[in-house]
């Protein structure tokens, strides 16, 4: 998946985007180099999540069979060179913390030892946070002097939706993972949510957002539901059981939800764009930069900003 969220040049930031956060934290934007430990997600043995097909979000530069050294070199050459000075190592494939802690830490140390690496993002499932991992990871991060964010896939706080998606974890698994990670202040917490799941209305989505934002989290990755070719969700879509957002409806939803997200939470993503040859729906055919521009123009026109509903500073 691509589409880094950016504030159009000249526009005042109405959301705390990832690039905005990087400017504040590092003084300039950072790239993300996708990395893969090579271990399949444990949920695949149980059928996998019904929307998930790794090819839809794997960059062409990434070959899971390559060593980490090669993945880093290719990522630097193809994704970073000429665009960014430095980067975060992003273990976004599968569920990287499914690796036993003693096997995972040396891989993370290898990435952290790169002088141009400013830190890590570890994408994973809530039920893959081993009790010993946060403290061990915290020690490693402390030693490196760099940053680390664990991005927990949740998708929805509603059990019926977790069941529908075949997540095979509960909301309680998620809160336990948050509790374990939050005990280590060196490690930040991000949460991945999908908006527009079948059977969820706006109130359900807002409830998920508010529930998650009440926890000690630092970042959110939101996106609209996408139907990817060959997934079980695709089968349901062909049976007309999966409504998807029009661009206008999704923009409207975002303008309603963003005011409920605290300003302190960084938005790494608020939409998504799977590989076009695998994306079945919705097909908006709009570039990410255009989406950013439209959203910011709408927010500016309506005087909306992130966190607005929490400050009482209503438009
Ligand atoms: S937990 Fe993540 S990687 Fe695993 S099947 Fe679900 S979406 Fe895919």
Molecular structure report:
The protein is of the alpha/beta class and 315 residues long. It has one domain (18-301): Aldolase class I (TIM Barrel), CATH 3.20.20.70. 36% of the residues lie in helices and 16% in strands. The protein has helices at residues 18-26, 68-80, 101-112, 133-144, 159-164, 171-182, 202-213, 232-238, 247-257, 288-301, 308-311; strands at residues 31-34, 87-91, 117-124, 147-155, 188-195, 219-224, 227-228, 266-269, 279-281. A seven-stranded parallel sheet has the order 1-2-3-4-5-6-8. Helix 3 packs parallel to helix 4. Residues 41, 43-44, 48-49, 52, 94-95, 125, 153 line the site of iron/sulfur cluster.
Entry keywords:
single chain; 315 residues; alpha/beta; TIM Barrel; seven-stranded parallel beta sheet; two-stranded antiparallel ribbon; 11 helices; 36% helix; globular; binds iron/sulfur cluster
Biggest sheet architecture: 7 strands, parallel
**Regions with pLDDT < 50 over 5+ consecutive residues?**
none
Q: Helix and strand succession?
A: HEHEHEHEHHEHEEHHEEHH
How many domains would you count in the coordinates?
1
How is this structure best summarized?
With 315 residues, the protein is an alpha/beta fold. The protein is built from 11 helices and 9 strands. The strands form 2 sheets. A 7-stranded parallel beta sheet has the order 1-2-3-4-5-6-8. Strands 7-9 form a two-stranded antiparallel sheet.
Secondary-structure map:
Layout lengths: L17 H9 L4 E4 L33 H13 L6 E5 L9 H12 L4 E8 L8 H12 L2 E9 L3 H6 L6 H12 L5 E8 L6 H12 L5 E6 L2 E2 L3 H7 L8 H11 L8 E4 L9 E3 L6 H14 L6 H4 L4
Parallel strand pairs: 1-2, 2-3, 3-4, 4-5, 5-6, 6-8
Antiparallel strand pairs: 7-9
């Amino acid at each position: 998946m691509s589409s880094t969220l950016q504030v159009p040049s000249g526009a005042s930031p109405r959301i705390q985007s990832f690039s905005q956060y990087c400017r504040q934290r590092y003084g300039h934007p950072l790239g993300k180099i996708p990395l893969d430990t090579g271990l399949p997600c444990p949920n695949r043995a149980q059928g996998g999540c019904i929307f998930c097909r790794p090819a839809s979000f794997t960059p062409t530069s990434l070959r899971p069979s390559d060593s980490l050294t090669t993945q880093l070199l290719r990522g630097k050459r193809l994704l970073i060179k000429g665009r960014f000075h430095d980067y975060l190592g992003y273990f976004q494939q599968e569920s990287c913390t499914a690796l036993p802690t003693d096997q995972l830490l040396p891989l993370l140390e290898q990435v952290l030892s790169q002088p141009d690496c400013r830190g890590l993002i570890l994408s994973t499932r809530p039920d893959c946070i081993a009790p010993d991992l946060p403290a061990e990871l915290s020690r490693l991060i402390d030693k490196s002097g760099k940053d680390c964010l664990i991005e927990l896939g949740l998708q929805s706080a509603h059990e019926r939706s977790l069941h529908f998606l075949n997540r095979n974890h509960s909301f309680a698994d998620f809160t336990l993972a948050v509790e374990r990670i939050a005990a280590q202040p060196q490690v930040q917490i991000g949460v991945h949510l999908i908006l527009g799941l079948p059977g969820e209305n706006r109130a359900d989505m807002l409830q998920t957002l508010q529930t998650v934002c009440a926890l000690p989290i630092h970042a959110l990755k939101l996106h609209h539901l996408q139907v990817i070719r060959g997934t079980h969700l695709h089968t349901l879509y062909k049976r007309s059981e999966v409504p998807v957002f029009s661009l206008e409806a999704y923009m409207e939803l975002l303008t309603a939800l963003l005011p409920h997200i605290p300003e302190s939470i960084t938005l790494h993503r608020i939409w998504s764009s799977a590989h076009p040859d695998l994306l079945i729906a919705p097909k908006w055919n709009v570039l990410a930069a255009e989406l950013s521009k439209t959203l910011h123009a709408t927010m500016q026109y309506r005087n909306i900003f992130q966190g607005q509903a929490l400050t009482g500073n209503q438009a």
